[in-house]
Amino acid sequence: MDGSLRRNLPVVVTTLIASLAIAVPTAQAADCAGANLLPALASVPTAKAATLCLVNGERTARGLAPLAADPVLESAATAYSQAMVQQHFFDHVSPGGQTLKERLASYVASADNWTMGENIAWGEGALATPAAIVKSWMASTGHRANILNSDFEEIGVGIVGGTPVGSLPAVSATYTTEFGARSSVSSAGGPTHASASSSEPLPAAAPQVKRMSAKKKAQISKRCHRVARRTKASKKTRKARYERCMSKALRAAAR
User: What is the pTM of this model?
Assistant: First the structure.
């Protein structure tokens, strides 16, 4: 934690690897389109919207203002998720030494007062859906603190297929959420900056995701395609059959 830069606005930057213990979707997932689908199946824009919907659902349920999507934060979040997948690391500091403050430099460039935070996560199969990721964050103290931080006003969600450990992009995803708020001296009365870093591991009892080979995943996908085409139906119905088959099969294979 960088105490020299922390004045009035506390921030926690947290890290998460999704676990099998938290695979059940939240009750709010039914209200957010695509929340229970893999990003590769629902489309990445739909998955981003679902993640924001779920995060804001947690906030508004507790009387907090919803976060507004910010394109600068989204760009930074997406770039960082991509970097973690391509460079095979999972941390708030990149292998080249880039920190959260450096990643969000353009976001706070013209601000006198700002605060920022970050949640990251990755998951495979049913654990890669927006519902599973947000539920995992809400079950972890540090991640929950970022989501429910009343100082934050804006958010950027970045989702990329694949994981830092080389999982198949079609059945996995890496998430980054950048949180922020900024203002000028005229509206806040004096400069204040907050940026801190502390990683919070999952409970020791949480089991790790069981890895599947690319061959096994391809076999599951091929079988589900056959299931989807078993009887005549519309393209939409066949897609829904395939998604249900994939979700069920991946959950079973991950046990």
Answer: 0.69
